[in-house]
Amino acid sequence: MSVRALPLLFLNLGGEMLYILDQRLRAQNIPGDKARRVLHDIILTMFNKSFIEELLKPQELYSKKALRTIYDRLAHASIMKLNQASMDKLYDLMTMALKYQVLLCPRPKDVLLVTFNHLDTIKGLIQDNPALLHLVDETLRQLIEVYGGLSAGEFQLIRQTLLTFFQDLHIRVSLFLKDKVQNSNGRFVLPVSGPVPWGIEVPGLIRMFDNKGEEVRRVEFPHGGNYVTAPKEGSFEVYGDRVLKLGTNMYSVNRPVETHTSGTSKNLSSQAQQSIAPNPLAKEELNFLAKLMGGMEIKKTSGPEPGFRLNLFTTDEEEEQAALTRPEELSHEVVNIQATQDQQRNQELARIMGEFEVMDQPRWSASKGDDLLAMMDEL
Amino acid sequence: MFRRQRSIPLRGSAAALSNNLSVLQLPVCNLTHFGVVHGPSAQLLSVAPEGVPLAQRQLHAKEGAGVSSPLITQVHWCALPFRVLLVLTSHRGIQMYESDGSVMVYWHALDSRDASPVQAMFARGIASCGHFICVGMWSGRVLVFDIPAKGPNIVLSEELAGHPTSVTDIASEPAQEQDPAGERGKGSPCLSPQDCMADVVTADDSGLLCVWRSGPEFKLLTRIPGFGVPCTSVQLWKGIAAVGYGNGQVRLYETSTGALHVQINAHARAICALDLAPEVGKLLSAAEDTFVHIWKLSKRTESGCTEVEHCHGECVPDTQVCGARFCDPSGSSFAVTGYDLAEILTFSSE
């Protein structure tokens, strides 16, 4: 699969996470300065220069477990805490939103416009912070450098790689159901009307030529859809009109989000089998992950700033209930990162690991079958 | 008029790949075999008439060095003069099996020395021609394997260099006779009519097509340039290359001259599969826009032109189609796979 898909996956999922957290912080009436602090801390961590550099190196896509671990850490990069049920729901919403956006991208290359939409909106959240704005702009520039020269074929491979990551996820999101972009069976609606992607002609015409290249006949045929030509192309510059709406913020205070996690288990047997099956390459993946997270600088909380817990549900009881009724197949298994005794890489990693413990988070249990993790010594 | 028939359930959903359905028709035993790629595994199904599934088997990509478990890119049955082999391409190499998938007869690992850090390695694009099987590579090379009438003594016969970017699909047809008067051969760089029996077409991510004549040494006959859009699927019929592109167009080229004969604005999204019912000249096109179209091709021998007529269009609602094939030689039934869909949809006009 493509070795260029990871940055797009990471940044877009991160963008969705910020949209959802922003909405919940306001819905839960968290004081403005605390809410701003949380978002700023997460954005600062996400766009850390060496982290982004590491991310942009050509590499295979991580497993779902590894990605989930990164977002757990990212969500806890500040004074905010999330219970497992809320973290699960947050991750469900993030992944289904991005699945929808990738699936509905008119052209494979438009997944880059989706990424730019996320980054543009993130910039909107940090208008008061020029240093952070600069970090995001830098990331935009680097994305343009890496992706600007890729061919349509390479973007097609990136899209296929991303779709493989989202395969068999059919969690129903009430906002999508309400907007009729998702069916009750969890599948997204693929419209057959509207503008064709930029660079594609409206279907319906057959042109026939002779050996000299002269057109001898043209015939129309009924193509079944209701398409019109594309109005204009979105901008791939640092600043510009993206035209595409996918990747912009669809949440607002008045549109609370619930997920339905029941009734979607039919196709999950294959997915569950994949995550439980022992993966002999988990160790290599962990090394990548540790290296990547080693680049994530965690801003130390200065002074006795009190943390707070964010709830993705409307009440605490709902959150408890969700934790109890979550189907087994959907439990997101999180990797337990423990440093190795390798002296060469140990010091810096140990310091970073130590910082992760500051917020007194619950220790996520290691997933079944990860015997290799058990081989790593506890720090 | 086509009607939906009984769907065939799959153990795992179909992956978002191009050409993600292979069909082996076995009229003698009244069976049809289907092959679909799920991800790290592919599923083979044996189906009786009326869509009744009889047997199924799962094949996995052979593991090798790397971070994640390897993904399969394509599964395809290759009909050779004395046997049928099932070929499976992945990010690690090429696996060949007896037609029911029971025994692996050959394994070819991708050479990691050729690997580039900025590009993933994979094999993709499978076709048989005569007693050869051609398989495309991420690098643009096409491997040609010489297949014996039976047994595992398969040999890599040649590596064709013709493509600057990753191969997407390969098509072949039995060598065609050029017209004896040499009318259409005029101006072509062939020594004799027999030299111009183009029977293999390879395509790549840049949209470039290479037309080859197969043999102990393959000969490159024509190059048909692309136009910046990947070619996702290709078929060959009576010396005409039918080509599907990432911009939803289907184009028909005369392979001996490279001349464009027909251009169809067929779909609103990238084409994912083309198939032929060669005896009746029917072409099937399927795309990510949820549509499948059937076309009737005809060659006008006097003018040398090719004509196309639209026969039928089918919408598979809310499904990003990833594979489609005719299920019988007369083109009166076809099957479709879609991304995330754990079933094969079948349609019939009988």
Q: Report the mean per-residue pLDDT of chain B as an integer.
A: 90
Radius of gyration of chain B: 19 Å
Which range does the strand content of chain A fall in?
5-15%
Considering residues with a beta carbon less than 8 A from a beta carbon on another chain, report the largest interface and each chain's count.
A-B, 66 and 70 residues
In CATH, the homologous superfamily of chain B goes by the name: YVTN repeat-like/Quinoprotein amine dehydrogenase
Q: Characterize the overall form of chain B.
A: globular
Poorly predicted runs of chain B: 179-196
Classify the helix fraction of chain A into a percent range. 40-55%
Alpha plus pi helix count of chain A: 14
And the CATH topology of chain B? Answer: Methylamine Dehydrogenase, Chain H
Please name the CATH architecture of chain B. Answer: 7 Propeller
- Name the strands of the widest sheet of chain A in spatial order: 1-8
> How large a portion of the residues of chain B is in β-strands, by DSSP E?
over 45%
Protein name (chain B): WD repeat domain 54
InterPro entries (chain B): WD40/YVTN_repeat-like_dom_sf (IPR015943), WD40_repeat_dom_sf (IPR036322), WD40_rpt (IPR001680), WDR54_beta_prop (IPR049546)
Domain WD repeat-containing protein 54 beta-propeller (chain B): 1-349
WD repeats (chain B): 264-298
